[in-house]
Amino acid sequence: MTLPISAKARARVSRRSFVVASVGAALAPGTGGTAHARGRSPFGRYGSPTARLDERTLYVHPGGLGDHTTVQAAVNAANGSGHTLVIAPGTYRETVAVSTARTELTWLGASEDARDVVIVHDNANGTPKPDGSGTHGTTGSATTTVQADGFTARDITFANDWLRAEHPEITGTQAVAIKVQGDRSAFLHCRFLGHQDTLYADSLALTAFARQYFAHCYVEGDVDFVFGRATAVFEHCHFRTLRRTDLAGAPYGFVFAPSTAVASPRGYLVTDSRVTSGAPDAYYKLARPWVPGSDPTARPMLTVRETRLGAGIDAVEPYTDMSAAHPWQSQRFAEYRNSGPGAEITVPANRPQLTRAEAASHTRGTYLGDWRPYEQR
């Protein structure tokens, strides 16, 4: 007999199953959680512990067929610069931190399908720390934190599956999947799953203008789910806004919340991408500026160009304020040649548009300078 389940239980099953189902085809008993065809390496074309690509390549496998069973253990072993981690299919429920000393580190999803390699945990801003010293805070909630320069990830899912419905007692609902602070950080064919504050594209300091590049990536969430002060380029990416059952009406949330430092000449650039929604039409804002208490002089910058905005985006008022003291009209928000129902210009004052001449300075080349990760895809 099938019993009805509560909305809370449905939400829990939905999020947990979404993460787990993504690796379902790669999981099987008897192999330490990771299945692979008989005689075929779980590390695909990237070698194995007995046939390394080079001495600086380490292999991660949840069932013990690699050098390490957790990603953090492999990161700890990758002392110095220039290591590569090849990560076998599986769900790695852990938090991972990459310190500034581990520069030029590369993570490769062995199956070359991001759905097969999931790094996930479930801390939120308001989650109590195990030692009783308070709560994690937004930064401390991150499943993965990358501070090193020259980091590259390919074919990996970064997730935070903390759910509001499971913790009504917690008001600090920010739950970060990954916080990236290093310069020259590249993510290719990766997925970022969460709800509030999914992808924290940031820098180590107000004066550090960290450059980051996201290509062919998928990002989902509801409130400010791409945020921070990095100089970040999102190219050929898919942003998905989620349906919410805890709110009765619009807005459900905001896709972007940049906090660009006033001295930084470049903030977020979204190009040749798309925004879709699982929510009713016009229930999401495209962006709102974040001027954090730690940087009251911030002047957030976002350019969205040649991108399809689905009906989930409020075309009449796509931008809103996070604080009345810092209206979005005073920030550096602009669009250029976008398409789709969410890009319809019904109130011109609410849709600042670049001219063709201005758009020439809003390209991946002008944002990333002498660093060209798009040439190495």
Structural description of this entry:
The chain has five helices and 25 strands. It is mainly β and 377 residues long. The relative contact order is 0.08. 9% of the residues lie in helices and 27% in strands. The longest helix has 15 residues, at 7-21. The strands form three sheets. The protein has a ten-stranded parallel beta sheet with strand order 1-2-5-8-11-14-17-20-23-25. An eight-stranded parallel beta sheet has the order 3-6-9-12-15-18-21-24, with no helix packed on it. Strands 4-7-10-13-16-19-22 form a seven-stranded parallel beta sheet.
Task: Quickly count the helices.
Answer: 5
Beta-strand fraction estimate: 25-35%
Element-level helix/strand string: HEHEEEEEHEEEEEEEEEEEEEEEEEEEHH
**Overall geometric form:** globular
Q: What gap, in angstroms, lies between the N and C termini? A: 51 Å
The poorly predicted ranges are: 1-14, 20-37
Q: Tell me how many strands there are.
A: 25
Tell me briefly what this model is.
The chain has 5 helices and 25 strands.
